[in-house]
Specification:
The protein is of the alpha/beta class. It contains 20 helices and 20 strands. The strands form three sheets. It has an eight-stranded mixed beta barrel, surrounded by five helices. Strands 6, 7, 8, 9, 10 and 11 form a six-stranded mixed sheet that branches. A hairpin with a 2-residue loop joins strand 9 and strand 10. Helix 6 packs antiparallel against helix 7, helix 10 crosses helix 11 and helix 13 runs parallel beside helix 15. It is rod-shaped and about 140 Å long. The two termini are about 85 Å apart.
């Protein structure tokens, strides 16, 4: 129907042609032009194309009654049936009610009253126009709502930064696939994003994340599969099958992502570790499948891990350790042991390294190789590091009071990356001053990886400590990214050679040459050199010949509890604690050194 009711299409059904003629003439005079008449009600369905806007229907027809025609209209058009106005000469209320019950909107009594007929038709057409407008408006509104709903659903399943499926979409897709067959999940953890944020800011981190995600999504290894975003540092590759080549694909992804990435002229380094899980049972829970992939992500030097059931028990133990670490700090379960350091040019003991130990009341001895990494992934490491420093200072204070050490002695304390925050140096200095321990008696050992993570802050804090008189050692030297390039700029006094360089020193000419070069280089910058993990006399001999300054390891002594170390100090004061090629402090030391600094 147009906006003008006079353009409405009106169908008149009456078995008497004179009635059709009369109504048609009346309507034409009123301005209605689209008029059709039908004298045989049995042909009504043929006259419904196009569907009229209004039907005037006679009730009394011999071929087929008006009531039956109403039934025909309802059957043919259902909810799209136009309004029907019945024409009747009867005053039968029952007949009119039956017509109204079948869908008739109004009725006109014969003989027709000219003004009444036109007014009723006009009213009905205006009502029809209004109803149709409302219906069209509702339809348009519903269409808009549908579009917006679809758009919102798409947004709810899309990661806004990358445009890739988000966690919800990945879970939904895995759920659908699991109902049809097996699923393989790869959880890809990006390592180095935190460092980018600290040095370049959040916007650069987001841009890098987007670049890496798109790089993966468009790669040949990932293109057949679904790539999505799990969180701000992890991506997912969802493989809709039990993929026996998942490890090979993970290795390709690792080669694709690990390394340097250039963005806006800036070079940034990332590594990735990948965990793989597969459905084993049709009833396996999808959320569990993704959790298993997260558990399978390696936390060590291994790049790719596959889920194994024992990872669940390991995760439970790690959670228990994480939960118990705080109370352990308060209850005295943590203690220090001390591994002596020796001078190679005279064999005298000149210091020791403080190593942390944990004796749990129910779990027993927990290795630092287990609980230190857990602490480093939480806020407990800061409190733990401070606790170690307090215990170390208390020990030095006790030894000085009992005259077990002199001013040439030093005790090394390890510092974690998490401790390098503004104010760290002030805190250390305040701790030393509180117990009146001279700063040169304390040596802080920091790994290169810790320095790399917090370079600007670490350099400032360490320089402040060094300027105050405290010695700094670069621990695990040679295992970082670019150790040699940092030697000339780091505020350190000592370089500690990692045990991996010492292991084959006596039998591998390359290792001997490498260690000798590092010692010469360190000496050139004015740094002393300490070799860790010395376990054999031939290793000691080589170190002596190439100019190493100090050594520590099982060849000389295992880490000792405080009472045992104090006994060693007394021996040293008597002049008996020296090392040589024929006698060691601990002749029963084994060659397997798994102690963790």
């Amino acid at each position: 129907m147009t906006k003008d009711p006079s353009q409405a299409h009106i169908l008149i059904i009456d078995d008497r042609p004179e009635n059709i003629h009369l109504l048609s003439t009346m309507l034409k005079q009123a301005g209605y032009q689209q008029l059709n008449g039908l004298t045989d009600p049995r042909l009504v369905t043929d006259a419904l194309s196009p569907v009229p806007d209004l039907i005037l229907l006679d009730m009394r027809m011999p071929q087929r009654s008006g009531l039956l025609v109403l039934d025909d209209l309802n059957d043919a058009l259902d909810e799209h049936c136009p309004p029907v106005m019945v024409l009747t000469a009867d005053n039968d209320l029952n007949l009119r009610n039956q017509a109204l019950c079948r869908g008739a909107i109004d009725y006109i009594s014969k003989p027709f009253d000219h003004d009444e007929v036109l007014q009723r038709i006009q009213n009905l057409l205006y009502l029809q126009l209004k109803t149709r407008k409302e219906r069209d408006q509702a339809a348009r509104l519903q269409m808009l709502v549908n579009k917006q709903t679809a758009a919102l659903r798409a947004l709810s399943l899309t990661h806004p930064l990358t445009g890739l499926p988000n966690r919800r979409a990945l879970l939904d897709a895995a759920e659908r696939q699991l109902s049809k067959g097996p699923v393989t999940v790869m959880m890809i953890a990006l390592d180095g994003m935190e460092a980018v944020t600290k040095h370049q800011g959040h916007l650069m981190t987001e841009a890098l994340y987007k670049q890496v995600a798109n790089l993966l999504a468009n790669s040949t290894v990932a293109r057949p599969h679904r790539i999505g975003v799990w969180d701000s540092t992890r991506l997912v590759m969802l493989i809709e099958e039990h993929d026996n080549h998942a490890v090979e694909k993970a290795a390709r992804i690792n080669r694709l992502i690990s390394g340097h990435h250039t963005l806006d002229g800036r070079l940034m380094f990332l590594r990735c570790h990948i965990g793989i899980s597969r459905t084993e049972l049709e009833t396996q829970d999808v959320a569990q499948l993704f959790r298993q992939a997260i558990l399978a992500i390696p936390t060590d030097d291994q790049l790719i891990g596959e889920y194994q059931p024992e990872l669940d028990s390991q995760a439970q133990r790690a959670h228990l350790i994480r939960t118990e670490l705080g109370p352990a700090l308060q209850s005295g379960q943590l203690s220090l042991v001390y591994q002596p350091k020796w001078r190679l040019d005279g064999g005298l003991m000149i210091g020791a390294e403080a190593l942390l130990r944990w004796q749990h009341p129910t779990l027993g001895a927990i290795s630092p190789a287990e609980f230190i990494p857990i602490a480093e992934r939480s806020a407990d490491m800061i409190q733990l590091g401070d606790h170690v420093l307090v215990m170390a200072l208390a020990a030095v204070e006790c030894w000085r009071k009992n005259k077990l050490i002199n001013d040439s002695f030093h005790l090394s304390v390890n510092v974690s990356a998490q401790q390098f925050r503004p104010g760290f140096a002030d805190s250390v200095l305040a701790r030393c001053q509180a117990v009146d321990v001279p700063l040169h008696l304390i040596q802080l050992e920091v790994t290169e990886s810790a320095l790399i993570q917090h370079m600007s802050v670490a350099l400032k804090e360490l320089q402040q400590l060094r300027d105050a008189g405290m010695h700094i050692a670069l621990d695990d030297f040679g295992t970082g990214y670019s150790s040699l390039s940092y030697l000339k700029q780091l505020p350190v006094d000592w370089v500690k050679l990692d045990r991996s360089f010492i292991q084959d020193l006596a039998t591998n000419a390359s290792d001997k040459h490498l260690v000798g070069s590092v010692i010469d280089l360190a000496h050139g910058f004015g740094h002393g050199v300490v070799a860790e993990g010395v376990e054999k006399e031939d290793q000691q001999f080589v170190l002596q010949t190439i100019g190493c300054d100090q050594v520590q390891g099982f060849l000389y002594a295992r880490p000792l509890i405080q009472e045992g170390f104090e006994q060693l100090l007394k021996t040293a004061n008597q002049g008996n604690a020296t090392i040589n090629s024929n006698a060691t402090i601990n002749s029963n030391a084994t060659s397997n050194n798994n102690e963790m600094a």
